[in-house]
Amino acid sequence: MSEKRAVLMVCLGNICRSPIAEAVLQHLINEAGISSKWTVDSAAVAAYHIGKKPDRRALETLAKHNVPYNNTARQVKKSDFEEFDYIFGMDNENISDLESIAPKNCKAKIGLLGAYDPQKELIIRDPYYGNAQKIDLKLEKYYAVFYDVGWFIGRIVQAGEYIKLKFLKEDLGRYLWRRKEDL
């Protein structure tokens, strides 16, 4: 693969779901030694937390898995739709917001990250509200989902293939099954 690929993870405030998704994918890319081939970032559709660090529970989830993260929240910009190849939202509201601000005929492909969840949970719900135990469980679950999706994307890049969203959706289960056999 000769050109660098770029992925943007998006959620409402860029303090829970999208930073975890960004950190996990970047971590896997770094471990695979292919960071020169990828740009990974995250952003919010709303301006609630611009310039702030992720929620402490999100950072604790990442720390528990030795996944570093240093970015702060930012909002999606129009230029993101030309700079990124793929923009993944966490829920239908994110997708609706992204589609409403995306320039016509933009470069980025917009899709739900949950479409690649081996457990078939399409919507990655916002864990920010709720009791601490439920939030911790959701963040842990999302870490696992993001790990599987990130691993799969990294595997395709190592093979030198271009990502095709339809291909990913149809073949994710088969590749994840192979991953279990590799362990």
Automatic annotation (TrEMBL):
Gene3D superfamilies: 3.40.50.2300. Its EC number is 3.1.3.2, 3.1.3.48. Keywords: Cytoplasm, Hydrolase, Protein phosphatase. Pfam families: LMWPc (PF01451). PANTHER family: LOW MOLECULAR WEIGHT PHOSPHOTYROSINE PROTEIN PHOSPHATASE, LOW MOLECULAR WEIGHT PROTEIN TYROSINE PHOSPHATASE. Acts on tyrosine phosphorylated proteins, low-MW aryl phosphates and natural and synthetic acyl phosphates. Belongs to the low molecular weight phosphotyrosine protein phosphatase family. This is Low molecular weight phosphotyrosine protein phosphatase.
